[in-house]
Amino acid sequence: MKMIESLFVKLGLVSTGLEKRKTVTFGDASSVEAGRFWSCLSVLTLALAWYLGSALELVNPIFWPSPMAVWDQFVSISSEGYRNFSLWEHIWASLYRILVGFGLGCLVGIPLGFAMGLSKLMRGWFDPIVEFFRPIPPLAFIPLVIIWSGIGERSKIMLLFFAALWIMVIAARAGVGSVKLNKIHAAYSLGASKRQILQHVILPNSLPEIFTGMRVAMGVCWGTVVAAELVAAESGVGYMIMVASKFLSTDIVVLGVIIVGAIGYGIDILMRKLEAKLIPWKGKA
Amino acid sequence: MSELLVNDVSMIFDTPDGGQVEALRNVSFNLKQGELLSVLGPSGCGKSTLLNIVAGFLAPTDGTVSNGSTELHGPGADRGMVFQQGALFEWLTVAENIGFGLTMKGRPKEEIAGVVDHLLQTVGLQDFGDKPIYELSGGMQQRVALARCLANDPDIILMDEPLGALDALTREKMQSLVLKLWKETGKTIILITHSVEEALFLGERLFVMAPRPGRIQKEYQLPFADEGLTKDPREIKASQEFIAKREEVLSMIWEMEEEIMGGAEAVGA
Question: Chain A residues with CB inside 8 Å of B104's CB?
Answer without folding.
Answer: 187, 190-193, 196, 200
